[in-house]
Queue: 2 jobs
Job 1
Amino acid sequence: AQSVTQLGSHVSVSEGALVLLRCNYSSSVPPYLFWYVQYPNQGLQLLLKYTSAATLVKGINGFEAEFKKSETSFHLTKPSAHMSDAAEYFCAVHGGTGGFKTIFGAGTRLFVKA
Amino acid sequence: DAGVIQSPRHEVTEMGQEVTLRCKPISGHNSLFWYRQTMMRGLELLIYFNNNVPIDDSGMPEDRFSAKMPNASFSTLKIQPSEPRDSAVYFCASSLKGDEQFFGPGTRLTVL
């Protein structure tokens, strides 16, 4: 069965530091990949998506992610963290060997220290 | 576009009562999803509709849960009877092609 693994349920960075949130998926067929962000008391909203075009995907709020087929990874990065980035981030995979379903990772909560 | 609309935003009820959650998807979207989110279990897919037809309800916890989509612009999730362990945030999401999903603000359900 297709799965998504997010390494680290909590990540803490200082304001201005690099943000790196890790995501690995399992699928023999390259799927569509997504990162969603959830701010407190809100629903999830799309940050960025990979749909088999460019492997480096740029999203909103300065985030980007790189699809690496050889590593089955889709890590999310941002060069400089801002206090407003504090939220929970979900990696998701659609298609591939999972068919029509979208599988969400368990989420990583990002804390940003002043 | 107003986005996905859910009502109510908060619901507090007593064990044994019937609860109905409502969702209006984005106009033109043909896929609709119901999720449940808790601290213990994270985000769980309950049921998925495509063109108003339930495609996968394997995530529905038990017979106390039921979902309907009578038309393209409205869906309900009903819990009857409700139990304290049903307390969670319930999200509705819609999609045009089934991949990128647009989430509503959620309904926070508390069952006492």
Job 2
Amino acid sequence: GAGVSQSPSNKVTEKGKDVELRCDPISGHTALYWYRQSLGQGLEFLIYFQGNSAPDKSGLPSDRFSAERTGGSVSTLTIQRTQQEDSAVYLCASSLAGGSYQPQHFGDGTRLSIL
Amino acid sequence: GENVEQHPSTLSVQEGDSAVIKCTYSDSASNYFPWYKQELGKGPQLIIDIRSNVGEKKDQRIAVTLNKTAKHFSLHITETQPEDSAVYFCAASNGGGANNLFFGTGTRLTVIP
């Protein structure tokens, strides 16, 4: 079956511009996560959506970052007034449900480059 | 919060030999420990996971061991093949509200034919 789909796969933009990254989770998965992977580093948690509950935004690095999930499916991560330190690979994952022991399945990410 | 450390950062082995990657975690409440394999330009792929009520789990050439007392867990790959070459990440989760994963910094495994 289809896995987690992310678009675009690559995005190059100028400093100060806004960007939107999209994630289509696996069909039927109620939990959705965004992570950021900087060059040569592990993954850093950003935000978590579970069903209709309020999202857990505890990992967002600044108020320039926001995310929404419409209809419990597709999610968009928005970065406003991008800075060079925002350059990274942004990964989305989904799981069948939230909570412990639920395997997270990742998309291939969006590689964001800020000039 | 949880802190996961992973060693070594790079590992080279001859084809057919075994590879071992080790991780430690700080939060005794963590109860779920997945391992991911990431190939160049791809997202992490789950290869095996273990829960805190189990000490060892095996899937063909891959095994994971967990020592809750010492708060460390390890990935063992036997009979390595060139296609095992990738970056491997360990992670830990306490299953709390977000169940977000805390990742190690990765091990770049190279299997030499």
